[in-house]
Amino acid sequence: YATLSKLAIHQRSHTGERPFSCPDCPKSFADPSVYRKHRRSHAGHRPHRCSSCPKAYVERKDLHNHQRSHTGERPYLCSECGKSFGRSHQRVHTGERPFLCPQCGRMFSDPSSYRRHQRAHQGVKPYGCADCGKAFRQPADLELHRRSHTGERPWRCGECGKAYKASWDLKRHRLSHSGERPWRCGECGKGFGERAALGKHWRTHSGERPYSCRRCGKGFGGASGLRKHERTH
User: Fold this and answer.
1) How many of the other CB atoms lie within 10 Å of CB of 166?
2) Can you give the residue ranges of the C2H2-type domain (predicted)?
3) Is the CATH code 3.40.50.150 the one for domain 127-178?
């Protein structure tokens, strides 16, 4: 490393030391620059605002990544299927899931999904709603929740004018106009409008049951089946 401070930050990845603790939530950090960025998320200071929608970001690079959802820019070309995606797409083809949860053994293909999952174990919900007190793990979840108070629906369909609180709801709705089913099962050829629906369908072939009841250990292919079962206890 070029400086002793950079070396010290790196060494904390081995020791687990996180000397920078947030006074507003249970989070702590090894790197002071990451800590400062986190503090701004509590202060509500998001100077980098999207010109196409109401979203705003603490860091310019996060705004740049978000703007690709409007422009359609996908700079990474997949050598397997020719599609352009972010970096983690190729793991869809390889099946690689390098991020292992030490608590439950579940594995993830990208670090952001892994971090979200870790918060579920820790019960950390640092982002609280000023109107009702409900807390969330992600600032984006809080922003979406606030729209239930304001009634804001910034994502509007260009064909029928219907508006939605979240971008993924609009994407799902657009498929009802196009009839497109881009996610296809490699085993039986059945097509689906959403990747999550394909994942749920695939379990009918693989027999995988990743959702287990904490009381009796019974496994289920989907979260809804587990919730229905848990009510019997």
Assistant:
1) 15
2) 1-19, 20-47, 48-75, 76-98, 99-126, 127-154, 155-182, 183-210, 211-233
3) no
